[in-house]
Amino acid sequence: MPKAIFSGLSRSTFDESNPAPYLKGTRKGVDEALVRKISADKREPAWMLQHRLESLRIFREKPMPAWGADLSALNLDDIVYYARSGARNTDDWAKVPAEIRRVYDRLGIPEAERKVLAGVGAQYESDVVYHSLKKQWEDLGVLFLDMDDAVRQYPDLVRRSFMKCVPPSDHKFAALHGAVWSGGTFLYVPKGVHVKEPLQAYFRMNARNMGQFEHTLIVVDEGASVHYIEGCSAPKYGSQALHAGCVEIFVKPGARCRYSSVENWSRDTYNLNTKRAIVEKDGVMEWVGGNMGSGVTMLYPCSMLVGEHARCDHLGLAFANAGQWQDTGAKVMHLAPHTSSTVVSKSISKGGGTAVYRGKLHVASHAHDCTASVTCDALLLDDDSRTDTIPDIAVRNDDVTIAHEATVGKLSAEDLFYLTSRGIPEAEATAMIVNGFIEPIVKLLPLEYAVEMNRLIELEMEGSVG
Fold it and tell me: Which of 6, 139, 178, 207 is placed for a possible disulfide with 452 were both Cys, Cβ 3.0 to 4.6 Å?
């Protein structure tokens, strides 16, 4: 069997940083001058500059969230909101600067592209440095390019959808994103095209006190299908970093989209990401996500089922270790009849970490004959950790089938005894139980990314016994 792409991952793989000479001349904090500079550097049309300025105005007016994770220690004036690495975007991996290329080589991204991916995007700080798409999909009309290029090359297509799913008025960090967004992915799949291999983008923050604000915009046209994967990481400095990206997905009638993410930001990072999909008639939206890094995470992928017989599946895994608060969950809005949804959320808490499931399920008064199921399973690995389940269910008609189940448990002493009595070391037995717990999530990832997820869990589990 060939060596798995990500089998050599270690914590140092993610925590190692490159020098950041490009930070010279940058400044911390955000104001109108910075917003205008970002727009000018990217040669954006006037409508995008106006969007940025209006978003900045909303950001200044919106209060910090007063619910969920504690954000009181986050100093927004101590973040670098825009830093260009100096690398130019290319579709030739050999032309990416060697020091940046080494980062992605360590993470296994080029190898994954050669083996299992239809296309790859790589972002470093505020710039996309590499983007490629296999010719067979390009010939079928698939568009896969970074958002900066998409705004210039396909302004009408982008303008119809950009921040229409997640408006800047949603909350303070959506507004901040609208003002300073940079890079990200634009993916359009034409009618009837089924992209059989996943596409991936990987986002890397490198410098101290960095902020990253990539924008992902996916449009899956009528009867088409695609699987898109995002990964991300950052080194650990002992000082704050901020990730406030945005994902907008439009699933047209009869289309299907699977969005998978493996987020492994450093413990320094506040991960305040917003992800949302609008699903039309007979469309299917699948979310598969794992959150292992970041000191604080607030992330709740949302599906808005606006067409009859639309469906969504949310599967999420959060791992909260020492000093981490993983506040994650899912939101589902049944806004049309005969729609269905499934939410499966799993969390693991260790070393005093806190994992919270925070979900919202809404069924509109006219959305009759809907089916929804929510299952939350939490696993505590010690007596110092914490888990909470906070569901919000609002059903506005009585022609629905709703199920909600939540379980919290510790490692079974009986299961551990059974395994160790057969000669399996306790640490290995613990890992086996944990792997069985997360298996429903991991099995939906392509093989190489399932290996990555399992390896990240192994890294988090180190030292959990004894």
Answer: 6
